[in-house]
Amino acid sequence: MSDRLFIFDTTLRDGEQVPGCQLNTVEKIQVAKALEELGVDVIEAGFPVSSPGDFQSVVEISKAVTWPTICALTRAVEKDINAAAEALKYAKRGRIHTGIGTSDYHIRHKFNSTQEEILERAIAATKYAKKFVEDVEFYCEDAGRTDNAYLARVVEAVIKAGATVVNIPDTTGYCLPDEYRAKIKYLIDNVDGVHNAILSTHCHNDLGMATANTVQGVLNGARQVEVTINGIGERAGNTSLEEVAMIFRSHKERNIVTNINTTKIYSMSRMVSSLMNMPVQPNKAIVGKNAFAHSSGIHQDGVLKNRESYEIIDPKEVGIDDNAIVLTARSGRAALKHRLRVLGVEMEQDKLDKVYEEFLKLADRKKDINDDDVLLLVGKDRTAMHRIKLEYLQVTSGVGLKSVASVCLDIAGEKFEAASAGNGPVDAAIKAVKMIIRRTMTIQEFLIQAINKGSDDIGKVHMQVEYDGNVYYGFSANTDIIAASVEAFIDAINKFVK
Ligand code: KIV
Ligand code: ZN
To answer: How far apart are the first and last CA of the chain?
Structure first.
């Protein structure tokens, strides 16, 4: 008999806390619907009290999604719980995820409190959340560094107060696998009534142990894992969904099963990477570009004779289509549509036609079009909704020459032009844009990355722009890095100029 492991995806909450990875509500719904198809059991959709945007996203995801439980995060504070309950009102199955720090670091330094007081607050928050929903999950923040005897008292008390799930986060990613295993085992062995609730793992990857700790938690009694697509999350990230799903699928002898449709993993990974502008490292397990690429002659020979000599997973199991059609300037719409579908993007014919036009322009400049290029083309189409658009950009620069740029912006249909000199072509072009926009804005971070290699590669630009005390994120990609820089700046400006 196998045990069912519940997959709690927090890409849209813990994952989305990464600077520069924020999604708008439409994008969040797109991710949530793909997570539903992937087969996750719970979607943590946001932290409703934290901002009106987060509140609205929980509302809209609750409406859009049918099968998974929709979860909303709160602190152990009544106003947070009220906001979560309100945001979840359209959820077919709603869960409130409340909790408080239980380690001495949190109790003494963050709350200036005592263990007894924190225990009372934990019980009160659980009981309060139970007034709104049956399904209440309690998190013991920094459980990784919490004394096990005290942790067991908190877990026992919140289960008695009605918690259906208790989350044991290694918030700082401090635990080693044997320590995390011992913690979960201690709770299973010492908490009265522990079988009336599910214990959940929530591991961070600061020491590269997130997946190992999660697996140890499951092998010792946890039956829910909190994970993100591609392991995204603050600092070094969270446990990655695809790793846990494939570990238990590969190790059937452990008798742990999930509801994940693994053939959707690759397209899900690409969707999140592209919407969040967060590249996946090439050697990332399961979804990295090199995860199934054999370059040494000995390996290639072995795989050709029998795939299992060097591969423990058939790439098809995770949805990697190894008959992938290579896209070039001679590829037709059908090939592009097929590639997009493999990458998790469905498109209406008229949108596809526009993307195809862009595709042909790019294919003229770049010989082989890879998956990243295709996803960026689709992303580019999103700027069609922008109020401010770059109409043209002309720059003169070179060694021994002063850089000068002329820019024309289309602002809600009206054209504005400006020209400026600068200490380089990007500086000159940004100054020209500023002359048109006339607001005090500062670029706080400016990152240029090449996607693959080669002088014809696409450059991706991420920018953080500070305006009126807030930070706005801009992104663009173009084979021309000066154009990409200006487009990223305009992308950020579109977020505050309404
Ligand atoms: O890492 C953590 O402790 C968390 C909690 C808020 C669940 O993300
Ligand atoms: Zn976390």
So the answer is: 58
